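pinning this so it doesn't scroll away 📌
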Amino acid sequence: MRVIKTIVFTCLLLACLSACGSFGAAAGSGGGEERLRLVSWNVQTFFDAKTDGSEYKDFVSDKHWGEAAYCERLKRLCSCISVLDADVLVLEELENEAVIRDISNYLCSAWPPGKHYRHAAFCKETGSSLGCAVLSRYPLEGLTCHGLDARACSGTASFRKSPSLRPLMQVRIMKNGRSLTLLVNHWKSMSGGAGESEVWRTAQEALLTDQMEKLGSMPAVACGDFNRDIQEFAGGDGGIVILRSGKKKLAVQSPWFPANGKPDGPGSYYYKEEWSRIDGFLCAGRLELEDFRPETGGPWCHEDTKIPRKYKVWNGQGYSDHLPISCTAAF
């Protein structure tokens, strides 16, 4: 498995680029339509068993957390990944590359060679606890992690009070000469108050808008945990969502919206007895998203209510506080 390592510097919109291979051909340049099954899942603070100093306090080795607990949690995650069976798997809240290797190695014994994830990419800000990963059955190229300097965000009281903002991860997936650009997001959580933290999500939205606009008509999918319900974005009519960067607006498609009306059924996150749809896919360019759904057919959620089985360190039970979401990208 090839893992692309990127170190992200906290500088003003500074992108640190690590490329692998050559640039892919544009979508629509001959050949037939390609399809990829995409799954995105926030797997909830997935740390390994090694104590490096940046872990959350619950994941420092003690009687509840260690090698045995990690191996059991890894085993259960991989059993879920086998059920989800994605061509391209996007995971938020992984600690490091070692976890990616453990996932891939474990799946090697569970899957035939044609299903192995032979390509992977990982990105997180230097010194932060958790990052995002992409595992793929198809080659990955042109990894870029776009770091956002919090000092550039208007409305912030001081840089010293700003949180660590996760970078926007951008990578191309190559299949039969065609490329699909994937932009992986994990925006600032609502801890500390939704209103107080909105400035950071607004800044991350602007960064995503700018990068998607640069792609023009190239097929692109933004996915991940936006920590903002899809109905809180501007737009929504006919599946259209408006992304903003200052006065700039960019129309993208969200599969959360049915042809008419508001989303129904389970969301992706359940909190205080309410569903929200903070995880999602947003697409632009020459492609379509098909068969979108929050995945509720596995042990990661309660069979009757579909509510996610949150992972609990103290007893080692559960999976994640988010549901996986899936779709098929046709490009």
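📌 and the second one:
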Amino acid sequence: MEPFRVHILGCGSALPTPRHYASAQVVEIRGKLFLVDCGEGTQMQLRRSRIRFTKISAVFITHLHGDHCFGLIGMLSTFGLLGRTARLAIYAPPEMEDILRRQMKLFCHDFDYEVDFHAVDTTSQQVIYEDRSLTIESIPLEHRMPCCGYLFREKAQQPHILRDMIDFYQIPVSQINNIKCGADWVTHEGEKVANERLVVAAEAPRSYAYCSDTRYIPTLHERLKGVTTLYHESTYGEDNILLAKKYYHSTARQAAQVARDAGVSHLLLGHYSSRYEDEQVLLREAQEVFPNAHLTDEQAVFDV
């Protein structure tokens, strides 16, 4: 099975602490690397993770709060200093384009790579990126400013043809794709070999949803049905539910409710408020509702 991993670079919230960096993750899927959010310190965390800067092909920004984007211009500058030549795609709310262009004009005007900016409509769920192996969708969220999450989906693969059946029936290479697409095989003697005898099903497609920042949305689970792994902000515990409502954030229990109602396999918690010295209290609250919940931490890597 091809790698599908989430590398946690930062899982803290707005106020920096000695324990947590601001929001940033790398989603690794089938050899491609996508950066999701880019808070301060992202470059250092990339170094510590031994993730090659040059392999990042696109950046996805959820919203224009500093703990999710203040690290971007510094990283773009570093790309230039490292001699990057490959184009870089940036997906973000439309308000970011003017800010980014001004910063690049001042700090990144003589580099050898181009930045393609893609404005994301944060109010609708739609496919914003697609290639042969995956799609990436925007997920409308509710925060104090326009904000969206991102949903990474593998595309279904063709079934695998059985090698011993190829040899036994002397199936030519030219027919393998036809059989993968559902064709039966007819031998030289006229015997029909049913397709289901020749192939085994491919692994089920995996998916990863990143939802930060947002208040609890009772209907969000409808957009996330069947997702394999969900990252949902869990800024507060139930002891601070009034702050969650005031600042349009979620509690760990509310994140677990979304995971349970969506029928996901795994829940990752993050975006912790700096008031918590020990996030175990958040984990316990989440696991009371959704047992397969996990705390994220810097340098942690999760298989989807």
